[in-house]
Amino acid sequence: MPTPIITDGSMDRLVRAPKVVLPKDQGLFAERASRFDQLAAESSGMGDYMRLLAQVCRAQSAAFKARTAHSVSERAIANSREHGMPPLSAHVFPRDESWHIDLRDIVAAVQQDAGAMTPEVTATLKELGTLAETDHESLDAIADRLIAGDSLVEDGSSIPFVGAALQVYFTRLASTLKADSVSNCDVASVCPCCGMRPTASLVRIDPDRLNYRYLVCSLCMTEWNMERVRCSSCESEKDVAYMAIESNDKPGLGQAVSAETCDSCKTYLKIFSQEKDALVDPIADDLNSLALDLLVDEKGYARTGPNLLFYPGHV
Ligand SMILES: [Zn+2]
Ligand SMILES: [Zn+2]
Fold first, then answer.
1. What is the mean pLDDT of residues 15-26?
2. What is the set of domains in the chain, with CATH numbers?
3. How far is the CA of 219 from the centre of ligand 1 (A)?
4. CA of 133 to the centre of ligand 2 (A)
5. Which of 1, 42, 195, 267 is the most buried (most CB within 10 A)?
6. HEC profile for the chain?
7. Ligand 1 mean position to 288 CA, how many Å?
């Protein structure tokens, strides 16, 4: 009679936890809007900023549901698999005009909905609305620069809205893919689906991903697993440390948000813990913890991943 193999279940969990999780939940942007609302209500100095971003996310949710994506061709997927490249490589992917329509819709919804907008936001929305109707070339140039990380100073006030539209467009495309189409990309520091850097990482509490760390794409919302205590940029395990801001009036918040720093490459990325705060959102809570960026920046670490809703100079 063969000896039964008894395990503690940890290997089973290792097999089951998915390497890549594509976005498929249509509630993703609506949940983010709720989180921004919550942060706005709790914020002492950034309430208006958080409320504006809540409106942007609500507009993203509506735009996401308004259209379906053309599925990515089998040939493009086979090509990317053969070359170990992400199937939606954002830097070269030929975007179609539906992202302009997403932008137009987002601009119109925020214009309708946002109560106390600053004159600058009002002017930006007006200008973007016009560009979305008449000048796609200029819009695509802003988008290309944002994706490349080369935004100009004059792009500044457009970024959260252009970023929001690009997120909707690429998230919709990513949601049409199957996980086995994207798991072949072996550069762990960029999104296996679109090749962009993550905004942050998230330690999850879902039953099939309990305590696993996932990097969250700044563009297409795909999540991919990376072991904890490993630099998400150079993949070193040696010189990783954590920094957080302790808050007296909100005990525990500092632990839900920390910066994972690496002394090998002198970079950092934030890491959020759902165990400490189940509602934490990598995009919203990132913008709610900019003080941590300042602190880590002062210590000489450079941030590796963008937040496409970040509004330079607005806060
Ligand atoms: Zn991505
Ligand atoms: Zn590193």
1. 83
2. 20-179 (3.90.1670.10)
3. 5
4. 43
5. 195
6. CCCCCCCCCHHHHHHHCCCEECCCCCCHHHHHHHHHHHHHHHCCCCHHHHHHHHHHHHHHHHHHHHCCCCCCCHHHHHHHHHHCCCCCCCCCCCCCCHHHHHHHHHHHHHHHHCCCCCHHHHHHHHHHHHHHHHCHHHHHHHHHHHHHCCCCHHHHHHHHHHHHHHHHHHHHHHCCCCHHHHCCCCCCCCCCCCCCCEEEEEECCCHHHCCCEEEEECCCCCEEECCCCCCCCCCCCCCEEEECCCCCCCCCHHHHEEEEEECCCCEEEEEEECCCCCCCCCCHHHHCCHHHHHHHHHCCCEECCCCCCCCCCCC
7. 22
